[in-house]
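Possible regression after last week's pipeline update?

I re-ran a chain I had predicted before the update to compare outputs. Posting the input and the new output here so someone can diff against the archived version. Not blocking, just want to make sure nothing changed silently.
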Amino acid sequence: MGASRLERKGFLRNIRRGLLRAAGPAALLAVLPLAVRADTLATFDWIPFSNGGSGTGSGDLILTLPGTVAGPGFDVSFSSASAALAAITGFSYTFSNGDILTLADVHTGTLQMNPTSWETTDTITPAGAPTGLYLGTNFSLSGDVTPADGILTPFLLDSAGGSVTLGAGAAELRITDTGYWELTSLTPVPLPATGLLLMSGLAMLAAAGWRRRAVQSGGRCPRGAAAG
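New output (post-update):
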């Protein structure tokens, strides 16, 4: 009875080992692309120009784009406007009167865009701005912010080469700064050390699995077979 139980355990153990050896490298290869995926940071600076606006401000915008973007420009689609909004991972804007919009303000706003993609223009020379690549997405991002005076105030970021507005109603009740978002850099996000360690570990395990299978299928003599 005891021997039979031991034999069954040994039989099940051998089956489990065989399944792990067969599926292990394939499973590791399936996970490896997820481990090596990096993102790209697209950084924009606000280039102000006078186009009927009441003032000029300053700001910067950072988009985190999935995968490696070779550049010089890009056109990256997202599954929804909320996913495109989440791609804004850095934002700061100071209006000409000193009021400020932050990343937190932007993330509480509502983004409208069609199509749902962040993209740049070709190399152009916009009116009142230097030659370069600019944000080319048509979008409208609106929400509310509480400036230093404590009064809840609507804001609007309108289009790529357009305006940033604080306030509502008549022109004298709001600040509208006009300008463009100029692309200043595309920077790959380096993989963290843990990611590199994971990659090397997965590669070593996959290689070990391949070596074991190669040895096992390389004509090793069965147990009990007569030698030569």
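Follow-up from reviewer: compared with the archived run. The first strand starts at residue 39 and ends at 48. Marking as no regression found.
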